[in-house]
Amino acid sequence: MIRLAILSSHPIQYNAPFFAAIAKSPSVQLKVFYSWQGTSNKVDPEFGEKITWDIPLLEGYESSFVQNVAKDPGSHHFNGIYNPDMNRIIKSWGANVLLVYGWAFRTHLLAMRYFHGRIPVYFRGDSTLLTESGFIKSACRKIWLTWVYKHIDGAFYPGSNSKKYFLAYGVPEETLFHVPHCIDNVRFGDEKNLCEQTAIQQRRKMGITDTALVLTFVGKLVQRKQPVLLLRAVLELLQSKPTSEIHLIFIGIGPLLEDLKNLAGDCKYIHFLGFKNQTEMPLMYRLGDIYVLPSDIETWGLGVNEAMACSRPVIVSDKVGCAPDLVKSHISGDIFEAGNIKSLEQNIAKYIENKDLIIEMRDSANKLIRDWSIEKSSEFLEKCILRKF
Prior knowledge:
single chain; alpha/beta; Rossmann fold; 7-stranded parallel β-sheet; 15 helices
């Protein structure tokens, strides 16, 4: 049996069900080694308050937390994760394969260097080239990352943008394996149509008519996700198309919340629902007709997976990493030019005139995302690892 050690910074709601699926394999004995406790029960720097997820993050797989001795612990800088005993503990557990999530922490890079050549070392990351800029900075980054990735035997990439990234930094194509980014599609499903019915009732309580076009923004209200751009686009559309009913629902909190509320003023078409926990998200996505992710920096965008699992088409910027893999015109959604408010407005406006298109795209978006499932991703990962044995 393969003894697979996964080195991850902290428990993450997206990873937990994936780890549990891997642990079910009869060929793999899994243990996840966490190098940090995370921000649970602590103030999250982007949310601005304490956040504790209401779904289990440590069930279904074996795990342990290794002491982090960093003076300023956290994932916000390289030295924020330093666990001097990590390599010894992983080795004593008897790992014969190591999978590292992210290199930009002291402990993780040290583990990659230590175990490379001793046991197969794999890497999981979703970085892209979408935000690369500046010749000198790019040249230095290439030298550094080419050296970093010489310490792995293979990389699991989530999509096409990430594959281009690994190839650019010297990872041989034959050692690149597609393990799709995934969410718990079943949890976001609605087999009995109960969430859809509840969403209709909730919209009516919010004063939204059944014929309105409703957009949702789900996530942290931070600059890189560009919620202000989206709000400005909707306000301009409301002004230029006064006979159209367009609503925008913000689901989330963050440092831009007050700025957004001030910009929205007393507009009855803009709604702020605040932070919603994980068990509420299947309903939240269904409050809207279209999910919008206008980020100018987004390595993947798992909210897109979630929205599509809720049978919602999406509009995303071309800086969202998942765009070429998941966003297909007239199937699952549209892609606009990042930072271009007119491009965003045009993509929204076409649905004002054609609500029937949204209905048609619901099933196709849901069907597309079914292939990006936890079960398939865990199977792909297992096959990649088994090829070494």
